[in-house]
Amino acid sequence: MSEFYNKILDNNRKWVADKTLNDPDYFKRLSEGQSPPLLWIGCSDSRVPANEITGTQPGEVFVHRNIANMVIHSDMNLLSVLDYAVNVLKVRHVIVCGHYGCGGVKAAMGNANIGLIDNWIRHIKDVYRFHYEELDAIVDEEKKFDRFVEVNVIEQVMDLAKTSIVQNAWAQGQDLWIHGWVYSLKDGLVKDLNVNFGSNKELPDVYQLNKIL
Ligand code: CO
After folding, report:
1. Which sequence spans correspond to the domains of the chain?
2. Is residue 122 flagged as an active site residue?
3. pTM for the complete prediction?
4. To 5 degrees, how large is the angle CA 181–CA 94–CA 176?
5. What is the mean pLDDT of residues 186-191?
6. CATH no. for 34-197
7. Tens of pLDDT along 43-62?
């Protein structure tokens, strides 16, 4: 195999020893169930680990990650995670966390034909089209890139709020909040974008689903 491969297996055994040293029932307790208060939707980027950034432990964060932290409402993987988190685990918070320097967002700014992934990147290009007036007005390429990362997160927060899953939960009076964050690879700090959705009333009228009982 490789040195790295052997190292991670070894790391696992050390981690188990460490966790159980002062808490012999650690894994027994975790194996009995989970009730995380948070669903994290983040980028697949290896530098943005949900638990480490938020100082949370196993059992505290339900996680979904994909390229550029996208919420695509026909993505069965995302919808299944969301449905389970909201309707079974009853999470109170959902955080969409993007990050500056995101390769997926960068690709969406360019015109390179990369391959299959172009179809995924196209969803990010749609975000650019919604915000092109603001983004095209930013001359500095780095600043434009940063702002694109931010508006992409805001759009994904809105796309979450538009889902039938989230709107049904709100209609039933569930306490559920959706937030947007951007993580900085340069200093490790999170910027809270202050987009906090707690009801569908904040959505444009055309997206509001009113249950007819
Ligand atoms: Co990324």
Report:
1. 1-32, 34-197
2. no
3. 0.95
4. 130
5. 98
6. 3.40.1050.10
7. 999 999 999 999 999 999 99
Active-site position among 10, 29, 75, 102:
102
CB atoms within 10 A of CB 27: 13
Q: Which residues contact 183 (CB under 8 A, 6 or more apart)?
A: 48, 53, 97, 98, 99, 100, 189, 190, 191
Evaluate whether 185 touches 100 at the Cβ level (below 8 Å): yes
16 alpha carbon – ligand 1 mean position (Å): 30
Long-range Cβ pairs for the range 188-197 (8 Å, 24+): 188/53, 190/53, 190/97, 191/150, 193/150, 193/153, 193/154, 193/157, 195/153, 195/154, 195/157, 195/158, 197/157, 197/158, 197/160, 197/161
DSSP E strands, the chain: 38-43, 61-66, 93-99, 177-183, 190-192
- 102 catalytic residue (yes or no): yes
Distance CA 70, CA 43 (A): 8
With beta carbons less than 8 A apart as the criterion, state whether 148 and 128 touch: yes
Is 43 an annotated catalytic residue?
yes
| Pair type for strands 38-43 and 61-66 | parallel
